[in-house]
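Bug #77: duplicate submission created two jobs. Keeping one. Sequence:
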Amino acid sequence: MKLSLKEKITYGLGAVGKDMVYMLSASYILYYYQDILGVSAIAMGIILMAARVFDAFNDPIMGVIVAKTRTRWGKFRPWLLIGTITNAVVLYFMFAAPPALSGSGLVAYAAITYVLWGVTYTMMDIPFWSMIPAFTEGGKEREGLSTLARSCAGVGSAIVTIITMKCVYTLGQGDERIGFRWFAFIIAVLFIIFTVLACITIREKSTVDVDSPSVKQMFKALVQNDQAVTVVIAIVLINCALYITSNLLIYFFKYDFGGETWYNSYTLFNTFGGAVQILSMMLFFPLLRKFMSTIKVFYVSIVMAVAGYGVLLILAFTNMSNILLLFIPGFLVFTAFGMLTVLTTVFLANTVDYGELKNNRRDESVIFSMQTFVVKLASGLAALIASICLTVCNLSDDTTQAAEVAGSAASIVGLRMTMAVLPIIGLVIAVVVFYKRYILTEERLEEIAGKLKER
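Kept job's structure:
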């Protein structure tokens, strides 16, 4: 039975809310605690990275728990709802640090709330993406829903990226600390509403009941699924490149462009980038798919991203005072990452069928738990790299000292170089690994689908 329009819309809304929450945490948690509350940049980098190491154990275990779940409402929706509500609550408190806290107390608060946020986000993210193979047919329907969901997720990310600083200044009337607290509250409420709508509408299709894997069996299945491992490596490298840029972008506009209204330029650039990224998922990707395979679109996207960062590297050695010049590399990078976001989800969904054929079990939750982990791992690595950059470049000062810090040419060049060179290295490694190891062409997928039907 084909998916209804209502199911597609509500699932898309769930993706919007989910990535609004994720982008608020991934892009602004370092800025909130380091620049607004005064926590050491290195301390925050270590906290963010340590939380991701913890997730290395938490995420796969959550995948097993989801796989073992049997309720009248299915195995995915209960965890999707529980995870969403708890994550929304933690998100609010994460951006509502008590004013009385300072020093080690504030560091401890940041660490505890961020780890809890990661745990609760996993509770809803794994079942959300695991549902795709569970209530869609293979082939075009699954790819279509994956494209729609990733596009909607991109919309959620873009919305938060575009409006955050404007809303923070408006809600807090110039006080960023108060502004972030109210903005986090609004995003948390929207997150819950969108997920509830998805849970009410989506129905899991009946599937063959299989024994749930143990943790040992799960890791064994992941190791045996070489295609899943390949896609996971690519996701880590690609997302790490993206998050290095997003983490440092706010500092780039604040300390490089400077001025009391720096957030206007920051908002303008993010508006442009967000629009381009949405168009790339909803228009450019479907258009290219008419002429080439998903694998070829992947290579085109990588080339575009590297070219964009190359232009940014060239601009790093110029005055670069005109924001319009940044639109050139911005267009290439945001277009590429928009399409790569869709592609990596499609590739990962394809490895579920491959794993079923190879290992004689269908492990949606196990495979997609890896996506949750690696995306958060990439954000943790990027945050650590960004914190090191801020410290080395002496850009870890308080907001009130922004004008003084912006006067250091060496600091600015170091910031620009980090934003351009490291992402290029990561993307090149990603494409080399993918080229050498990924074998799931469209012809191979059709062959796998045929063999599974025979079983």
